[in-house]
Design goal:
This protein has 276 residues and is of the alpha/beta class. 37% of the residues lie in helices and 19% in strands. The protein folds into two domains: 169 residues, Rossmann fold (3-Layer(aba) Sandwich); 91 residues, 2-Layer Sandwich (Pantoate--beta-alanine Ligase, Chain: A,domain 2), CATH 3.30.1300.10.
Length: 276
């Protein structure tokens, strides 16, 4: 496994890789969810590239950029064990050199859900992912379903800008008790960690009701809200039942939907979703 930091070294290293190349963009502090993306890329591609970069432009001014968990040596051990070919760890001056002023804005699909609470987030995501795509020029790129809106935004951006890259969205990986794996789970205190299970419990209950015949969007949302309300440590920011492609909120009877949520558990913000 080769480790590079600069664009020049990245390009030299890429020249020696066999195609197709699969890219797994990450912000590090890896867990089994990230590794599932690496494993999928390993199955489908001749070469696997992983980027590790905590992207400042996708954090708001009151968010957790400075305390976001980092452990590069641990990440590299985990990636080496997965037979990754190349790891790129650019610094801020590589990604955003002095005088940087070019940004990518995806319009409608960034407005609801996360976009309503984090208005600058997806500008940062779209820009950094476009830069990763341009630098690595992979044939496939791998993302997790836990960040459902991000996946829709990246698919839209990739289509609109004509990137010849297959966007592969992989299933959520969960802890044994159902909590979606997230680098931010490390922030949770023991009682908060226990309370956080209510997120998946509410989503799974809504899915079970859907599978049993419940089609009313407002009822599906309310099932999640009511389940979360059983835990006083968990505060809802939103519960959504939306079209999985457009992310527009659905009303009345639904046949297919993304049920998603964002909450705070203590000081930690968590998201999760299911597709029905």
């Amino acid at each position: 496994m080769r480790l590079v930091e600069t664009l020049e070294d990245l390009r030299k290293a890429l020249a020696g890789l066999s195609r197709p190349v699969g890219l797994v963009p990450t912000m590090g502090y890896l867990h089994a969810g990230h590794l599932s993306l690496v494993q999928r890329a390993r199955q489908e591609c001749n070469s696997v590239v992983v980027s590790i970069y905590v992207n400042p432009s996708q954090f708001g001014p009151q968010e957790d950029l400075n305390k976001y968990p980092r452990n590069l040596s641990r990440d590299l051990e985990m990636l080496s064990a997965e037979n990754v070919d190349l790891v790129w760890t650019p610094g801020d001056t590589v990604m955003y050199p002095p005088g940087y002023q070019t940004w990518i804005t995806v319009e409608q699909v960034t407005q609801p859900l996360e976009g309503a609470f984090r208005p600058t987030h997806f500008r940062g995501v779209s820009t950094v992912v476009a830069k990763l795509f341009n630098a690595v020029q992979p044939q496939k790129a791998y993302f997790g379903q836990k960040d459902a809106q991000q996946a829709v935004v990246i698919r839209t951006m990739s289509r609109d800008l004509g990137f010849p890259i297959g966007i592969v969205v992989c299933p959520i990986v969960r802890e044994p008790d159902g909590l979606a794996m997230s680098s931010r789970n490390v922030y949770l205190k023991p009682d908060e960690r226990q309370a956080a299970v209510v997120l998946s419990r509410g989503l799974f209950k809504a899915r079970e009701n859907f599978e049993a015949g419940e089609r009313e969007s407002s009822r599906l949302r309310q099932i999640v809200v009511d389940t979360i309300a059983t835990q006083s440590l968990v505060k809802v920011q939103y519960v959504s039942c939306a079209d999985p492609q457009t992310l527009q909120e659905l009303e009345g009877q639904v046949e297919h939907a993304l049920i998603s949520l964002a909450v705070t558990v203590g000081k930690t913000r968590l998201i999760d979703n299911v597709i029905v």
